Amino acid sequence: MTKKIDTLFINAHVLCMDDSFTNFENGAVAVLDDHIHAVGPTDELKNTCPAGEVIDCEGKVLMPGLVNAHTHVPMNLLRGLADDLRLDVWLLGYIMPVEREFVNPEFVRLGTSLACAELIRSGVTSFADMYYFEDHVAEMAAEAGLRAICCQTILKFPSPDAASYREALASSEIMIKKWKNHPLITPAVAPHAAYTSTVDILVSATVLAQKYDVPLHIHVAETAQEVEDSLRDLDMPIVPYIEQQNVLKSKVIAAHCVHIDEREMHTLQKYGVGVAHNPTSNLKLSSGIAPINRMLELGLNVGIGTDGVSSNNDLDMFEEMRLAALLAKGSSGDPTVVPARTAVAMATSMGAKSIHLGDQTGSIVKGKKADLILVNLHTLHNTPQFKNDPDGVYAQLVYSTKSTDVTDVMVNGKWLMRSRELLTVDLSKLLPKAQALAEEIDKFLIQRFQSVYSKLIAVGGAEEQESYEVQVKVKVDDPQAVIDKLLQSELDIQYFRHYHEYDTYFEFEDPEECWLRYREDEFIDEDGNVENIRYRLTLIGPKRERHFPQDVLLSRSRFIAPAPQSLRFYREYFEPSNETYIEKDRRRWKVRFRDIEFYINVDRLDDPALGTFLEVKSRTWSLDDAEEKAQIAEDLLSLLGTFPQERESLDYVQIVWSKS
Ligand SMILES: [Zn+2]
């Protein structure tokens, strides 16, 4: 007796996307429970497969659902939050501060549901995700009925869902155990990237992935900077480095791989690493163009991903498929590379292999899961159709078809969309919530970004320290005489230091704003060599708090923070209206004078060359204290010589401005 099957698709142009690219121009697919029971010509299956429901697919392509090989679905709620920025400014300056403030289980659930709706509508049936609170991503993906690899992010610094990486590893294991045998969800582990991981994270995440035989999802060589840093700090590029930590022995999904060389590609191929190519994200963040043509030649499984929508800004896999093909052609100067059929494979069968789900999905083969989509070719932009080239249909899908041509989506034998109507996600409730949250985030950003100070706090970590100082400054013609006098004096010298200081001052349009100084401090040793370099940001109050007799200044340093990012980063993040550069040689003595600590600086301004200044400074905490110290500072100055010159009441940057 012939078994009655659940659904029989007939009269479709069936693209199997199997290894031999079988296709049936008038084809049929039979679905039983969660899997594909049979595939073949309509005439044949009509007779052999009596079905509960028969669907006439006239004018439509029936193909495997698309596989989004790399994304961060909850970020759907951050779409359009910050655009046209460099990766570090975008990530560290905007996305991460907002994530720290807003990302919680509710955020993740809402973002995931919205993303699932968008994925289903564009014909995606499987995706590989990487985010925080991934357990909630898994729940909502399962509720929407999509197949997903849900990878818990592990970072070396605190994240919205883990105070430490140990915590993130522990919650990864809990999640893996919970979801291990789910029909739709594959739990996995995601050390975010080599540069955001420690060796211990990479090793532990690999051990975890191997212990439970789950994938390991990681960003690899996304930017040239990442590779430069790796070469400088580790003396090797990214792939050999993660290979050394045994990472590649697990089932790796390597996102991006934009900046990898021939040798690294061979290594990835040797270990069966899946590569997730993200053409839009790489273009939008100007990360570069991944050498996918060569990867494909070497037999690597290269899938296509959208990345998160905040760097895309949508989850449209038809766009990605098209861009993957076009970009490979445009960048190689060879229009024959990545032909349309290959691009479709990258978004289906090869994509499934790249995320290590090739045995379950990605092609229409008897026994595989019924993850299917119908694409309507009876539209204006798909007309006319030619039959002379059997591969013409792939070109049509890649170059003409829009994601809105996807009419029906089935995952695991269950309908998620029919005639473009979503069946598992109710948008009417979700969209207003997303907009309400956007308004909250807007408020937060407007507040956080309204002043240089709050922007600095947002990006500078927690090293806020307010300090005021009393300072007196005078130009000296014979610095050596001052130094001699200092060394011969009775002053208790606590230490001496020699620096070369390279300062960039940012000014801002609003005159009420402070100046921000980016300082590169080179510590010079006794032999005149650079011993150490320190980078710091200091926010300096624009106004003198109080002017004392003899032009002693009470200046204000509101905030001092280490500056781990580049000058270029801070320039793009703070967007100053003007910049001033000052280079000086500083000899500094810390002394005790009348039981008070003072710094005596002999500063030679080299660029611009403005001569040498003697500066006496001390920390202070109150106006009374400042008044007393101001007098003592003046006394200390007289100890070092007689200076008939006028006291300089301006900061160096103001002196430079006054001369220009
Ligand atoms: Zn990513």
Write structural notes for this entry.
The protein has three domains: 5-58, Urease, subunit C, domain 1 (Roll), CATH 2.30.40.10; 64-444, TIM Barrel; 452-659, Hypothetical Protein Pfu-838710-001, CATH 2.40.320.10. The chain is built from 21 helices and 27 strands. With 660 residues, the chain is of the alpha/beta class. The strands form four sheets. Strands 1, 2, 3, 4, 5, 14, 15, 16 and 17 form a nine-stranded mixed sheet that branches. Helix 2 (87-102) packs across helix 19 (567-574) and helix 13 (340-347) crosses helix 15. Helices cover 35% and strands 32% of the residues. The structure holds zinc ion. Zinc ion (ZN) binds at residues 70, 72, 219, 255, 307. Zinc ion is lined by residues 70, 72, 219, 255, 307.
Bound ligands, each once:
zinc ion
Describe the biggest sheet? 9 strands, mixed
Low-confidence stretches: none
Number of strands: 27
Which architecture of the largest domain would the CATH scheme give at its second level? Alpha-Beta Barrel
**Average pLDDT for all residues:** 92
Counting copies of identical and different chains, the oligomeric state is single chain
The proportion of residues forming helix, as a percent range, comes to: 25-40%
How many structurally independent domains?
Answer: 3
User: Which topology of the largest domain does CATH recognise?
Assistant: TIM Barrel
